[in-house]
Every structure is written in structure tokens, then in C-alpha cells.
Amino acid sequence: MIDKLIEGIKQTKCPVCVGLDTMHTYLPEEFEADEKKPLRSIGDALFDFNREIIDSINDIVPSVKVQVAYYEQYGSAGMRAFKKTIAYARKVGLVVISDVKRNDIGSTATAYSNAYLGGVEIGGERHCPYESDFITVNPYFGIDGIQPFLNDCKKYGKGIFALVKTSNPSGGEFQDLKVYRKRLYERVADKVDAWGQDLIGEYGYSAVGAVVGATYREQAQFLREKHPTTFFLVPGYGAQGATAADIAVNFDANGLGAVINSSRGILLAYKKPQYAGMNFKKAARAAVLDMKEDILSALKANGVNL
Amino acid sequence: MIDKLIEGIKQTKCPVCVGLDTMHTYLPEEFEADEKKPLRSIGDALFDFNREIIDSINDIVPSVKVQVAYYEQYGSAGMRAFKKTIAYARKVGLVVISDVKRNDIGSTATAYSNAYLGGVEIGGERHCPYESDFITVNPYFGIDGIQPFLNDCKKYGKGIFALVKTSNPSGGEFQDLKVYRKRLYERVADKVDAWGQDLIGEYGYSAVGAVVGATYREQAQFLREKHPTTFFLVPGYGAQGATAADIAVNFDANGLGAVINSSRGILLAYKKPQYAGMNFKKAARAAVLDMKEDILSALKANGVNL
């Protein structure tokens, strides 16, 4: 699956995933809720909005990242929208990263892996209710909470991104603690690298990647140099404050090695002055193209061509 | 909510939460799946089984812990069973701990908190689809990923348990790393303690508790002495190998300060030789009473009476 993501990046020249972190408050007026069944109508609206966004960007990006929290908050109507969104995105050929940050002891991690990667067997048939290409996971439990995901990566050609250095302001509260001569996030990155060594694809990157926040440039640069087989999922561009120059350090000399997420910057582009007069679909597409240009320019400034 | 949990423990003299980690393979033969709609019939069966377990134990325990992973793996049918299970358990007066281990940056943590604690406002009405009394959370993001949960704890009288020292074999891979003179889990425990200081209830315990695995006895003993206002949710008894003597160190001199979880030991009691001839409900009840006896004896051996 990491190879499919990289091929998509090479083909579109756009190392971007569009973050479908869709809230009902983000929707344009035409998606008005039905007061009689507000949750159900919001669930339908979330999917309709996402489908239109997907249709407007799917020829120019390789992947979407769908943050499950935004759907969980609407209960079953939201989870139906999540399921339909990831299924639709996969159907049109996008690589789907479900951003779930799941984590638990081995037996329970197996159940999570069943939900998103591997599926549960019932009456001889495999059911994977929220089948995704990648998911994000939290590494706090160590290897035996990760192994079930690795098993499904091998068996079904899936991938994971484990949290290493997160993009939020207090990310360093534990992640930056110094353990002998290294920071905790460096120790985590070392393990993530090791966990992925037998899942390396034909471009030299592993299906076991790392989440590395764009808001911590120096740390990202260090990790990029240290872990040449670890692919980075990079949040923090745009709404969270990171610039293209910040994110350029996450790429290798061939412009590969990272996929940059933007959520609000694309979903809410239709509310920005520079896209005035565009509907939400056109604004989203324009915002993706501007983001692509911004990243490619920053890479070029570093002498890198994708 | 921490006060309600403690009152329930004092009333039942049973510091136990029954872990409803229900899988379709755990169900007795009478819950046969309908081959035509296997997922839906499994969802119904999970709830029916849980309801019968709840009915058979709700007068002898204060709380249940419901592990969402086991429901997510069945998709919407599973999540419906999860929702119905927690609603039913709350209706009959049990304190419900939803074991979700959610974690993310602040804006996304808010969405998770909406789902389980606070609710989302739609058309002036509050909708909390999976309303629980407590949830478990993962602290890897630091305070700004925790603050949204704290806000809802204050506003709605809820509680959280943050992962500190997990019960699994590789739990120490990161948690035991030495940061200056302390282990990482000690650093996390210090923060969890501090996060909870303005949520302390009338028994001297905070609504911000810690997950402390029963399988690491010395560490638990250390944490109990160090953090007198932090209530512990203790997994690892039974199927994971911890004995009552191991778990006794998690309690204070009054027999308070901890609630011990058992999942498979109770749900699957009907398959054990010592409960032969009992149906699953009677076996679950007998297993809870045996567990209570086991814990109270171990406490007594330490000179503690609940």
C-alpha cells in the first residue's frame, strides 16, 4: 500500500492528503439540517459534502485522510457517513488513511485491526466494516499493542502511521523528555523504524510510517535524515501554522518520503477571501492546487524536484 | 462521578468493574447468528448477552467497563450494541467506563469528548451519542489533547482515566524508559495527578484517574503511595495473570482508591470447570462474587477492611 501511495504522489506530483475532518458547522448553507431528524440529516450531509469534495480533487491528489473523531461525535449517523466516505474514496482510487490513533493491549488491538484493516471472520466470510488502506496508531503500549496491526499489514497489504512527534503545542510534554542521550520521540522513531523493516516496498519505504508534525521543523529534519525507510504523514500545514518551508524538510532528495495533510485549509477554503466567488468544490480544488504549488516551490528552493 | 463510583464501591463492598469486552465467539450457543444478516444478528446478540450479564450482576458491582474495540470491529451493528449497552447499564444505575483510549490534538480531542462525555450541540439541543460516566484516554499528546476532556469533566460531572502503566508485556518498552531519575510512567503519573487537582471529590479522589496495570505490582505500589488523590482503574486481574495479592497494593488504608477490572474471567466463566452446570448468567455472578472474596481477603491480609 505504501507503493500505491508513492505511485499516486509521483503521478499527481502532489504529496498531499486532503483531510476530511468534516463538522456540521463547516458545511455551506445548502446542506441545511432537517430539524425533525437532525443527526440523520447531518450524517447524510457530511457524506454528500465529502463526496463532492472527493469528486473535485480526486484527479489531483493521491490520498485522503479521514479523522474518525469528527464522525464519532454524531453517533451512528456520523459513523455511517465515515464508512460511506472511506468506501467512496477507495472506490474512486484514492489511498485512504483513517486517522483513528487506536491503541490497546494485544487482544484488543486485534479487534481494532479487525475494524479497519483485517476484518473479522463470520461464517467463513471476512467483514471489515471500516476498511482503510492505512490507519494511524498510538505506540504507548509498545510492540505487543502494534503487532496485530503489523500482521494485517502483511496479510492484506495495508499500512500504519505511528505517532512519533505530534503537531500540537504540548506535544513535547512527554515526547521531548530526555531518555539518556535521546528524546522520547527519537526512541519511538527508532522502534517504528525497526517494526517496519520487513515491510519495505519497492521505493525503499516501509508500510510502517510515522506521524511527524510539520510544526517542529528541526526535529522533522533530524528524523528524515535518521530514518530513510520511514515514510512520514505530516499534519500541521496551514491552519496549525506550518509553512511549506517547514514541511520541505520531511522529503528526501527525490521529493518522496512524506505526504502532507491539510484539512480545514481545504474544506473551508470557500470561506477565504482569496477564493471569493467560488463554491466549496472549486475553492477546495483551488486550495489543493495552491498547496501543491507552495510545496513544490519550497522543494525546488531546496534543489529537489518531484 | 468519582464520588458516585466510590459510593457504589462502599455500598457493594466490591471494588470491581465487569469488563464487557464481548466478542461473538464468547457467546453461548443460544445466541446463534442469523446467516442471512450475520452482522446485524451478532450486534443484537452482543447487546442481549450484555443485558443479561448486567441484570445478573448489577446489584453486586458498582460499575462496568465497556471496551469499544470489540464493538467497532462489527461496524454499525456493533456500535449500536455498544450504545445500547452503555445506555442500559447507566439506566440501571451502574457507573459506565467506556474504554476508548482516545487521543488527539485539541480540536480533535474536543470531537472525541463530544462523542463520549459532553455532546455536540445541534439546533440548541445537546446530543451525546455514546454518553458515558468515565472514559479512558491516552496522554501522548500532553495537556492540550487532554484539556477538552477535563472541560467536559467539569461541566458535566464526568471523569477520565489516563493511561499511566499498562498491563501488557511490552508496556514498559516506552513507559519504563528512564527520564533523569524517573521512569516515563512516573512522569505521566505526575502530570495526571496535577491535571486532576481541581476535580477532587468529597472522598479525596480526583475525577482524573490513572490506568495502572495489575501485572506490575511494585510500580503500582509506588504509584499508590506517591499519588493519594489519583484513583486507579486496574486491568490485568485474571486472564492477564495478576493475582489478588498483586492488586491489593492499589488500594489505600480504607480499601478505596482503585477499581479492578475483569472481562474474560467473568464473561467466559460459564466455560470454566468450577462453574460447570451454571448458565452464563449464574456463572458470571458466581465469578464476580469469587473475585470480590478474593480481593477482600487479600486486603484483609494487608490489614485493610473495605
Q: Can you walk through the features of this model?
A:
- Two copies of one chain form a homodimer.
- Chain A contains twelve helices and twelve strands.
- In chain A, helix 10 links the parallel strand 11 and strand 12 (258-262).
- In chain A, the strands form three sheets. In chain A, strands 1-2-3-6-7-10-11-12 form an eight-stranded parallel barrel, surrounded by seven helices.
- The first copy, chain A, has one domain: TIM Barrel, CATH 3.20.20.
- With 306 residues, chain A is an alpha/beta fold.
- Helix content of chain A is 43%, strand content 17%.
- In chain A, 59% of the residues are buried.
- The two termini of chain A are 20 Å apart.
- At the A-B interface, helix 2, helix 3, helix 4, helix 5 and helix 7 of A face helix 2, helix 3, helix 4, helix 5 and helix 7 of B.
- Chains A, B: Its EC number is 4.1.1.23.
Sum up the structure in keywords.
RibuloseP-bd_barrel (chains A, B), two-stranded antiparallel sheet, lyase (chains A, B), alpha/beta, TIM Barrel, globular, homodimer, 306 residues, 12 helices
